[in-house]
Specification:
271 residues; 14% strand; globular
Length: 271
């Protein structure tokens, strides 16, 4: 079996992360008191970095660091896993994983069936979201299109983004994409009502490298386009992270053969 080189991106200091035998990347290191974090953790303000952008880029500052400073150390077909501090790839779909036994359950080798290019989490389906939350967030959209109240399946990726992160932001951002992806991405966000979320994945170095190049070329254009917007509050502050989350799902579906794989989300009271 092929070994997975696991990374975990975190913006917080949790002791259990030190016992997982994975490489920890501290997101937004530039704006943190580094003496409060373990010295062995990777700081995303080392080397070539955009760590100072973390407020609006979120985990992207760590993805950028990985792209510019670490990927070059791997062979093209080496497998790399991206985890987040509460979301981890695991060996199988079991409910009995806790902080104390997480390390022994983390997925560290590629399954013997290697007829895939990427492992992804199961999709988030828009129609499964709570109605009260959708109505509160998307009142102006329901006024424009009342039929959405009666047909939840019509809540697309684009409309969901309008509801939670800012009206027309995603559709305007899509216009900035290069010609190879723009039309396909516009159709994807308009037609699909589900996507692979959280920017966690396991894939090969050559694929991740291409993903990062395409996504950051686009994200930096978006940063210029929305530079005068007031990105305040949970839904908007990490706007570029949310853009990338949709693009990552699109990219893997368009360019790779994917396989859904189990992962665990640790509850807040567990960490």
């Amino acid at each position: 079996m092929s070994i997975i080189h696991n990374y975990c991106i975190t913006g917080k200091n949790f002791n259990f992360l030190n016992n997982l035998n994975v490489d920890i990347i501290l997101a937004g290191s530039e704006n943190k008191n580094l003496s409060e974090y373990p010295a062995k953790w990777i700081k995303d303000n080392d080397g070539v970095n955009i760590s100072e952008k973390n407020k609006n880029f979120g985990t992207l500052t760590s993805h950028f660091w990985l792209w510019k400073n670490k990927l070059k150390e791997y062979d093209d077909n080496d497998w790399i896993g991206i985890n987040h501090y509460r979301r981890f790839w695991v060996k199988n779909d079991t409910k009995d994983i806790t902080v104390s036994n997480l390390s022994e359950n983390i997925l560290r080798e590629i399954p013997s069936d290697q007829n895939f290019d990427a492992l992804l989490p199961e999709k988030i389906v828009m129609e499964n979201l709570k109605f009260s939350k959708l109505f509160k967030k998307g009142f102006q959209n329901y006024i424009r299109k009342p039929s959405l109240l009666f047909n939840r399946k019509r809540i697309s990726i684009e409309l969901h983004f309008d509801l939670f992160h800012g009206y027309r932001y995603l559709s305007e951002a899509a216009k900035l994409m290069d010609d190879t992806d723009r039309v396909d991405f516009e159709n994807y966000i308009k037609d699909q009502n589900s996507f692979h979320g959280f920017q966690i994945f396991v894939s090969k170095k050559r694929i991740i490298e291409d993903l990062y190049k395409k996504s950051f070329d686009w994200i930096f254009k978006c940063e210029k386009r929305f530079s005068n917007e007031k990105l305040i509050g949970y839904g908007k502050e990490r706007l570029y992270d949310f853009f990338a989350e949709r693009y990552y799902s699109f990219y893997f579906e368009k360019y790779t053969k994917t396989k859904i794989w189990p992962w665990i989300m640790l509850h807040k009271d567990m960490v």
